[in-house]
Design goal:
The protein is α/β, with parallel strands linked by helices. It is 33% helix and 24% strand.
């Protein structure tokens, strides 16, 4: 039997950290982005939950059945592997007050999260050889889990005094939506999703209601929105496909079409949502390196500028009807699961990474966790309306990004590719990597929003599993 322990001081209220574990969505939020895991079923409350999930290990898919036991409300619970790849696995999660002087009260804004594992490897002495690599993997895993637990608990605590909402999410299968659904559930909100005809069920074990709509045919039953407080619209095809004339039309239609259908439907309803938050992009503004542009900066007459303009204008029926409508202009959302970071990290791992152009172009970014927090803030803050720039306030160039990523992944950056070569290879699509998009998140700043991740290297290390374990390195404990 091998024992491991990770113990961390979290700057979040103990009750909020316990609520994070108790509420739906916690397990999904604790899966690191570099791990491929699928929940197959989840039955019962935290005290007696039986969770079945599959883990992808190369070409193999391993099924794991976890049974919860040893539950003491507000203090601890244990998950025991009932079936899976290990001979045995017992994991105790415990919470306690932050250390304090004997004559002082505990810090209400902090607590200690203590994870203890007792693991028995399969295959006898051969399995013991996996101890070292396994310990390193656990170190990466729990560094991420503790950081995310602290993040979500802090964010949710800020809004705990307000009523819980009924939220409809469109585009819930994408990079942001697939995390926003469990994030909002974990905060205590009721969440339903709009799905396309024939889409597979995506949320086993979570209390998510699915309603079918078909925006391509203009079909949306108002009953799917009845009684909801807000809609979060994340629809839109990925822009990585070749920018042919046909694809440019698809990029536009996949954004403006669903947005217009939602806005028209909501505007006609008397029992529908009063808030529409629609994703948008920051890349429609002028190329800028000298000073950051505010939300009031005009959109350019470019492919991206026209897409953003049409996307945001499609929500006009909701605005005209008096509904609170906000366009969340997102920068590049950094996640190892997809988007710009996944593509760049893949190129670095293959040893084929370059910096496009002179490297001086500003790269607008924010972490996925900060993006989720922006939507949570906009749901609760009744003053959030109109265009809202959602980008980290730290000025970051493409040269900064590629150098930092090379350092984090310990892979070489093979120099720069001249802008003329990039334009010849990519055509108009080269504006995505050569354009300098420096915008200021002034609307969020004025409303008190604080970005948790403002240092690029720290953010990349956490997202890619390259940070040091919280509380120190993992070491075996005596039995």
């Amino acid at each position: 039997m091998t024992r491991f322990r990770a113990r961390s001081l979290l700057r979040a209220p103990r009750a909020e950290v316990w609520a994070f574990h108790e509420n739906p969505g916690a397990f999904e939020r604790l899966v690191p982005p570099w791990q491929t895991l699928s929940v197959l079923s989840s039955v019962g409350p935290l005290a007696t939950r039986r969770l079945v999930f599959s883990i992808h290990a190369g070409p193999a898919r391993l099924t794991w059945v976890a049974q919860h036991e040893g539950y003491v409300a507000g203090e601890r619970f244990t998950d025991r592997m009932a079936r899976g790849p290990m001979r045995s696995w017992v994991h105790q999660h415990a919470l306690s007050d932050a250390p304090h002087a004997p004559d002082a009260a505990p810090d209400p804004g902090a607590c200690v999260l203590d994870d203890r594992l007792a693991v028995e490897f399969p295959f006898g002495p051969l399995g013991a050889l996996a101890h070292g690599p396994f310990a390193r993997q656990l170190g990466r895993l729990f560094a991420f889990r503790h950081a995310r637990t602290e993040h979500d608990a802090q964010r949710h605590a800020a809004w705990r005094s307000l009523p819980r909402l009924r939220v409809v999410v469109c585009g819930a299968s994408g990079l942001i939506g697939s995390e926003l659904v469990p994030y909002l559930l974990n905060a205590g909100h009721a969440v339903s999703v709009l799905t396309r005809p024939g889409a597979p069920a995506r949320w086993p074990g979570l209390p998510v209601r699915a309603h079918t709509w078909d925006p391509q045919r203009g079909l949306l039953d108002p009953a799917a929105l009845a009684g909801a407080d807000a809609v979060v619209n994340l629809c839109g095809l990925n822009l990585r496909a070749r920018w042919s004339q046909a694809n440019r039309a698809r990029f536009l239609d996949s954004r403006a079409g669903p947005t217009a259908l939602l806005a028209r439907t909501m505007a006609r309803m008397t029992d529908g949502p009063r808030v529409l938050l629609s994703a948008s992009g920051v890349s429609g503004v002028a190329d800028q390196r000298l000073a950051p542009l505010p939300e009031s900066a005009p959109l350019e007459d470019t492919t991206l500028g026209r897409i953003v303009a049409a996307w945001e204008a499609a929500a006009e029926p909701a605005r005209t009807a008096g509904l609170r409508t906000a366009s969340i202009r997102l920068g590049a959302v950094l996640s190892a699961r997809g988007g710009a970071l996944a593509a760049l990290a893949g190129a670095f791992r293959l040893g084929a990474a370059f910096c496009p152009g002179d490297g001086g172009q500003v790269f607008p970014w924010l972490t996925l966790d900060d993006a989720l927090a922006v939507f949570e803030h906009a749901l609760h803050d009744g003053s959030c309306a109109g265009p809202i720039n959602a980008v980290c306030p730290t000025r970051t160039t493409m040269d900064d990004l590629t150098r930092t990523l090379a350092r984090v992944l310990r892979r070489p950056r093979l120099g720069r590719v001249p802008a003329a070569v990039v334009r010849r290879l990519m055509g108009e699509q080269s504006s995505v990597v050569l354009g300098s998009c420096w915008v200021d998140p002034s609307a969020l700043r004025s409303r008190g929003f604080v970005f948790r991740h403002t240092d690029l290297e720290t953010a990349l290390r956490l997202e890619l599993g390259r940070c040091a374990p919280i509380g120190g390195p993992w070491t075996p404990e005596p039995a």
